[in-house]
Write a structure and sequence with these properties.
Number of domains: 1
Mean pLDDT: 90
Helix content: over 70%
Order of helices and strands: HHH
Number of strands: 0
Length: 109
């Protein structure tokens, strides 16, 4: 069980790191929001699921209640993070943010 918990936590941390790299490296607003929306949601869910499994190491009322609270947080993140990302992206589109386009090199004649 501990190995599964460690794998979930390390995978979540790796995805947070990849999301950060995506935010810094991607060329425009839309691709950065895509990286933030997908990576942040998945990494948060993986890490919280690992913490939920860790909390169930000893079954009593207190650990079950804490585990249920963490699961409720996971449900909230699963619904709120993609919705917020969509709303921010839609606001960018409505305000006229242009998508990135690769510049064409003109051939010298």
């Amino acid at each position: 069980m501990n190995i599964l918990i460690i794998v979930l936590l390390i995978t979540g941390l790796f995805l947070f790191f990849a999301t950060t790299v995506g935010l810094l490296r991607f060329p425009d607003f839309y691709s950065r929001m895509h990286a933030a929306g997908k990576g942040d949601t998945l990494s948060s869910l993986l890490m919280l699921f690992g913490l939920t499994l860790y909390e169930f190491h000893e079954l009593n009322l207190a650990t079950v209640l804490v585990g249920l609270k963490i699961l409720l947080i996971m449900v909230f993140i699963f619904m709120a993070s993609p919705t917020a990302t969509h709303a921010i992206t839609d606001a960018g589109y409505e305000s006229g943010v242009k998508p990135w386009q690769k510049e064409k090199k003109e051939e010298a004649e």
